[in-house]
Amino acid sequence: MDDSTAHSPGSSQAISFLADIRFHRVLWLPPSPENGRPSSLRVTYSDLGAQDGEVLLVCGGLYGSRYTLAQADKLAKKRGVRLITPDKPGVGGTEPVDINQKVKAWFDIVQALVKRLDLKHVAFLGHSSGAIYILNSLLHLRHLMHQTRPYAALFTPWVLPSHSEAATPAIASMLPNWAIHKWYETSHFLSRNDITPNLGPSTARPGVKMDTDGMTKAIDEKIMEYALLEDVEGVCQEALFCLKRGGESAWGSWRDYDEYIPLLKQQESGRGGASKIELDVFLAETDNSSGERGSQWFDGLWKGEAGDWIRYSSSTVPGTTHETIMRMESGALGSVFERITTA
Q1: CATH numbers and ranges of domains, the chain
Q2: pTM recorded for the entire structure
Q3: Which residues form the AB hydrolase-1 domain (predicted)?
Q4: Which end of the chain is more exposed for a tag (fewer CB within 10 A), N or C?
């Protein structure tokens, strides 16, 4: 970046925006020996949008950064949504945990945030591998959801290469663990799309104007710069987690989505007259990570089991990719905000 760009008005405004304390919240979790975590855990998170709004707890994808939905701050304020996004373990300022403790650490983080921020209830959003954590939340943190409008959204949920046949994940699945670490350190995987998935290049939905103003670009560049100054080792571990290179229980009490859905169905069917979970799934028009075939497989599983125990809906968002589906101009994120704020 040259001096003129570094000192441009847009760059100065971006620095001020990202320096806001809302992006740099810190939470300390006490030791949890029962969850395999003998020491305390430092967690960093962002708290954006309307502070008195409906809470949307966000679990990002491969990178899993607290900056993931930085550009959604303005829209969230307008729609009355509070966005809380923790850094995943080993990313940003959140300390790492063992690969087999990642889901349990997520449970601890969510419950600690609910207590610290005195939240009455939460809705959940997961992008890519974040879907694994959010689906586990529906099983184990159901009590934290709204009593009459329990809601969760998944964006391009991660699907194993054995189902997706996507080239890049398939290649990664054949590599030994040390090679995956090296690959992610030296490849383009740590690109702007990973760190700011809502800002990466994409084809806009027909009739939607791309947001390319100077401020947006400046924030994009600063997020990239700041994120790479912090810890990124967790990205390599998350890649291994996605490929199930941990133990059999790394994803929780289920090995794949075809085992998960019956577990949730059994739980929800046993709740009697309780309000049904609303689960919205947003699929990309082009997906080189989960693959078109993988997305169809995932969607087909849910549609095959959906019934009066859940309100399941899926849609393909035109002009989007796995990494860019949460961009503001796609409209998908805005529809999520509308869902959780509409009685």
Answers
A1: 3-341 (3.40.50.1820)
A2: 0.88
A3: 55-322
A4: C
Question: For residue 309, how many other CB atoms are within 10 A of its CB?
Answer: 17
pLDDT at 272: 80
Helix (H, G, I), strand (E, B) or coil at 197: coil
Please tell me whether residue 135 adopts helix, strand or coil conformation. Answer: helix
Torsion of CA 220, 58, 83, 98, to 10 degrees: -90
Instruction: Check whether 8 has a pLDDT greater than 50.
Output: yes
What the block records as the tokens of 318 is: 């035109």
Q: In what order do the strands lie in the sheet with 310-321?
A: 25-29, 41-49, 81-86, 54-59, 123-127, 151-155, 277-286, 310-321
Q: Is the distance from CB of 205 to CB of 329 less than 8 angstroms?
A: yes
Q: What is the DSSP letter of 296?
A: H
Burial (CB count within 10 angstroms: exposed 0-12, middle 13-18, buried 19+), residue 241? buried
pLDDT digits over 98-128, tens only? 999 999 999 999 999 999 999 999 999 999 9
Total residue count of the chain as it appears in this document? 343
